[in-house]
Amino acid sequence: MDDKRQSYGEEVKESKARSLSDEDRALIKKAEQEADDRYLANYKRNYKRRYGRKKVSRSVRFLTGSYLLMLAAFTASLIYLNMFPKTWMLAIAVILAVVTAAVVMGLRSRGRKKGTRILAALLALLLIFFYGVGTVYTFTTMSFLSATSAENEKPVESVEDDTFHVVITGIDTEGVIDEPGRSDVNMVLTVNPRTHQLLMTSIPRDYQISLAEHGGALDKLTHTGYYGVESTMAAEGSLLDIEPNYYVKVNFTTVRKFIDAIGGIDVYSEYEFSPTNDWTVHVGTNHMNGEQALAFSRTRYAFEEGDRQRIRNQQAVFEAIFRKAVSSPSMIINYSSILSELQDYFKMSFSPKEIRELVRKQLADNQEWRIYKSTITGGDAMMPTYSGGSQNLYVMTRDEKSLANARARIIAVMKGEEPEMHVNSKG
After folding, report:
1. List of residues 6+ apart from 355 with CB closer than 8 A
2. Is this structure's pTM higher than 0.70?
3. pLDDT value of position 381
4. Which CATH superfamily includes the segment(s) 156-414?
């Protein structure tokens, strides 16, 4: 039955087809073709309106090009600086890629709403400013490090892995760092970057030393400041039986400007005293600006132990500066101010590459440093010195036990061990 019905339907279609003339069939075919053409044209027009490209305005092209140019400069500056850990750089790259895709799509895509395009334009302008500032900061950093770094003949192979010794010499002068003066602050830092240990070994300014460059003549350590930082390093290295690798040279102006630039420091005081007529330091933690920290570090006549207590106060100031430098966001916030303030008042023998390596390691490790304080002591005497001629001057004579203790602590830190800290007056 089904086969018969199908056969009958086909016969009917053939009968109708035979009943149409060739002209009718041509008209029908033409009408069908025109309908197909109209559908295809409408489809293409609607698709192009919704998804197709339109001519990008000149302002959008300029903004997009400016954005990509500043992004390229910023990225190149980060690679050139090489101060951030690899994980940080990878995260920064991913963020920049995502943000850039969003900005470019928002600026150039036709289907976006007007408000979205305006938002993308504002974001592009903000990022162009950010990239520009970041690029300037990078090259300012490199310029600062190059200007303040001196040649060094005794660096370690790697500041990230090898223990090294840094001589901190504080000259009693104001103004630019090249002004000659006495070395009033004398501190040797022994740094173990693998174990995050730092030992401060302070040497009194009047300590008895021998001047190798003057035939081993006896003098006071403070006078080596007149002969140059190399003389100070040689004298301190001879006392402690080490070979100092680096030095950092500062003066009164350096201390004031640096501490003010980082927003002050919090310093612990063992005593209550008045470094100035209008300011009193209390026992415990005191917030200090640059002028106050300098006065705190220089005061000695207010204490029974005189210069010995002043050394402990200097160590407290340095510890406060160091802890803020490795942990405080204000170092980043005040970054530009710090560099501009210290350009002419600071000298060191670390290379720019070594400074970047130290910063990169600290950012990657993000570990707390163990800080130890050691002070060399000695006897009291009045005697002539090489610099003073026949005039008798106060000299702190050597105490071999104190020197031996200081050397033992240095060796312990170099090995990554806990140094045995003595609290008696003889070191």
Report:
1. 145, 149
2. yes
3. 94
4. LCP protein (3.40.630.190)
